[in-house]
UniProtKB/TrEMBL annotation:
Domain START-like: 3-127
InterPro entries listed in its UniProt record: START-like_dom_sf, START_2
Protein name as annotated: START-like domain-containing protein
Origin: domain of life: Bacteria
Pfam families registered for this protein in UniProt: START_2
Length: 128
């Protein structure tokens, strides 16, 4: 079954360089995205609780700009999740834009999931 593309935008009140570290490093991701993150080359292993680690591969990135991961279960597909930093040219406001894919009908659950994660990130950054 085809997944649905979803996109979210969250205002962040922090420096882009600091935010990027929370998006692109195992140490940063383990602060807000998962309980534990291990990085091995382009492969990141995310752990929540006592369950098995889930593998995602870093498939694209641009320093200080964005990271794009593909979950192991989505290998060979067009599905990914991307965290991108956008700075408004006029106001200089910084936002974190999320692109993700979810099962049809799970859009609201996905939105709430990301809102919770971003709230955690904003608390860590003092960026709310």
């Amino acid at each position: 079954m085809a997944k649905t593309k979803v996109q979210y935008e969250y205002n962040m009140h922090c420096l882009s360089e600091i935010l990027y570290e929370y998006l692109a490093s195992a140490e940063g991701l383990s602060e807000w995205f998962a309980e534990d993150v291990v990085e091995r080359g382009d492969d990141f292993f995310f752990s929540w609780g006592s369950g098995p680690a889930e593998k995602a591969t870093l498939i694209r990135y641009k320093p200080e700009s964005f990271v794009r991961f593909r979950w192991e279960e989505d290998e060979g597909s067009k599905y990914f999740f991307e965290l991108s930093i956008v700075i408004d040219e006029i106001t200089d406001d910084l936002s974190l834009n999320i692109t993700d894919f979810c099962e049809p009908g799970d859009e609201e659950e996905n939105r709430l999931y990301w809102e919770n994660l971003i709230e955690n990130l904003q608390l860590k950054l003092g960026a709310s």
